Amino acid sequence: MDRASLSSPQIAAWLEGLEPVWTMLTYESYCDVNFPDRKRAGVTLNDAVTTQALTASPLLENARILIACCAERDGLQATAAGNLGRRAVGELVERLAWPNYDAEIALSWCTVVNEHDVHPLHFLRQLLGMMKLIRPRGGRFVATHTGQRLLRPESGAQLFHRLFRAIFDDVDLSWLYPHRLPVWPQQDWRLVCWGLSVAACRWESPKTLSRLCTVPVIGILESDWDVAPSLLEGRLLKPLTWLGLLEVKPNDDDAPPDKRSLYRTSALFREFFRFDVDIEAPATVVH
User: Fold this and answer.
1) Structural class in CATH, domain 54-165
2) I need a surface site. Which of 115, 150, 193, 270 has the fewest CB within 10 A?
3) At a CB cut-off of 8 Å and minimum separation 6, what does 278 contact?
4) Alpha-carbon distance 221 to 120, whole Å?
5) Distance between terminal CA atoms of the chain?
């Protein structure tokens, strides 16, 4: 999509007077950011993030806790279905902390608590299994040799880098928010993250960020309801927040659903991402 297409009535109506920040990029930089196989990398990741900066990552800390529990002599109980047992789930709920997620409220309606009832924990256990950092063995989850090695304090940056790459390059994030659009906006995560570096320096809602940072596709424009904020939040903003790359806070109680949470980039975001782009237009965001 180019700047000229933004003048179409359908897209203009969806944008509601906002102009996407990616229109500031030259065509070459737009391609450099969105397509990682180009000679010039528009987005690179810092694989030497400081230990101090990494303390802001809830997912990194939670991953270490879960791997460490699996590394203990008996590991963690596994169910026949391949999930964590209820006792393990109960213990981990007490130990793990997730941004903008109150486990007590989320589980208040559950008679018994299974792994899939704790959405972030279910995601983390599957992620670490896919990364081959934990594995089932004899009815228990145990840590692999790689998982145990990455528990070392000096391996924090390496583990964080692997978690990020696994989430955005290897995992299908559509299961976090199911919809008939299977890959949007995950396929554009590089462009979205560059957009966040410009548009989310201050607190913004998922709806505003969906207009400023994403490239709308037909399924978004022709949807019966405005699904873009929910897809952006469920598939990108929340994982980025779990990683500590975004900060989140609740908005006013009377805010509409697509504005109930506000997001902005964190200090870790600014240390982790490296952008090499050329700007065609003045670096201003239209609000």
Assistant:
1) mainly alpha
2) 270
3) 25, 26, 28, 29
4) 30
5) 21
In this prediction, residue 259 carries a pLDDT of 81
| CA neighbor of 273 nearest in space, from 196, 202, 215 | 196
Q: List the structure tokens of 78.
A: 């596994």
User: Model confidence over 172-191: pLDDT tens digits?
Assistant: 998 888 888 889 999 999 99
Sequence ranges of the domains in the chain: 3-41+176-275, 54-165
Q: Report DSSP letters for 88-122, one per residue.
A: HHHHHHHH---TT--HHHHTTT-SS--GGGSHHHH
Spatial distance between the Cα atoms of 273 and 189, rounded to a whole number of angstroms: 12
The answer for residues whose C-beta is within 8 angstroms of residue 39's C-beta and 6 or more apart is: none
Q: Which token pair is 197?
A: 């570096």
Q: What is the pTM of this model?
A: 0.92
Q: Quick one: tokens of 5?
A: 């297409």
Instruction: Tell me whether residue 263 is exposed, middle or buried, using C-beta atoms within 10 angstroms of its C-beta: 0 to 12, 13 to 18, 19 or more.
Output: buried
**136 within 8 A of 74, measured Cβ to Cβ:** no
Q: Which amino acid is at 114?
A: N
Please provide the size of the chain in residues: 287
